[in-house]
Design a protein that fits this description.
about 230 residues; alpha+beta; two-stranded antiparallel sheet; 7 helices; about 25% strand
Length: about 230
């Protein structure tokens, strides 16, 4: 996908279905996902739905449009090879019915970690990775927290001339997935406790393991906790 121009970014930001837009990545609101799914289930094509929801189709490549659908997960040219290959695995899982939610939980955990901890492809300290895999209620606080910690010293690369050495996730291994129940916002959900470990292209001292709690909210999995 080509990079968005400043004019395109401004227009995309004006759409109420846009959660966030950067130079090369567009994030949608939960309302977009809900409305997209309703229209998709009614038999409308992704291109028609995007147009009906106020988006200019010239801004989207066909490959990007095909990847959006219900879940709102997207690929961009700045994503790493390991992210792209894991994304393809997720696409296969989500296209099989019934969906294997254990595999689904594993793969969004991998994608979240790859996108969050790969800082090398981020444009600035505000270009926080992994947001699309979090529950909507957590995204703003998570973004602020990461901006003040993990991403705090990420230098701007808007001009493409950054020299700063930043981490690139090489591989993520899921060592355990435990099916459980989890109470979130006073409501109990089917959930998965995912244990993950990962390596980097070069060890720069960044985090290498985590346990993530993933809930099933209306057949979409969201990460709601990590430690």
């Amino acid at each position: 996908m080509k990079e968005y121009t400043p004019k395109q970014i401004k227009k995309l930001e004006a759409n109420p279905y846009t959660l966030k837009v950067t130079k090369n990545k567009l994030y949608f609101t939960i309302k977009f996902k809900e409305d997209f799914w309703i229209n998709y289930q009614a038999g409308n094509a992704p291109r028609k739905i995007l147009s009906d929801l106020g988006y200019d189709l010239e801004y989207f490549g066909q490959k990007q449009i095909d990847s959006i659908e219900y879940y709102g997960y997207t690929l961009t040219k700045s994503d790493t090879d390991v992210y792209k290959s894991t994304f393809k695995e997720l696409s296969k899982v989500l296209n099989n019915k019934p969906i294997d939610n254990t595999e689904y939980a594993k793969l969004i955990s991998k994608l979240f970690i790859i996108d969050l901890y790969t800082l090398d492809n981020k444009l600035s300290s505000t270009d926080i990775g992994g947001l699309e895999f979090l529950h909507k209620d957590l995204r703003d606080n998570f973004k602020d927290n990461m901006g003040a910690t993990l991403y705090k010293y990420v230098e701007s690369n808007l001009d493409g001339k950054r020299k700063q050495e930043l981490p690139i996730v090489k591989e993520v291994t899921i060592s355990d997935v435990f099916e459980t129940k989890y109470t979130y916002n006073k409501k109990e959900y089917n959930a998965y406790l995912v244990t993950a470990n990962w390596t980097y292209e070069k060890d720069l001292g960044y985090q290498t393991s985590a346990k993530l709690t993933v809930i099933n909210d209306n057949d979409i999995l969201y990460i709601v906790k990590g430690n």
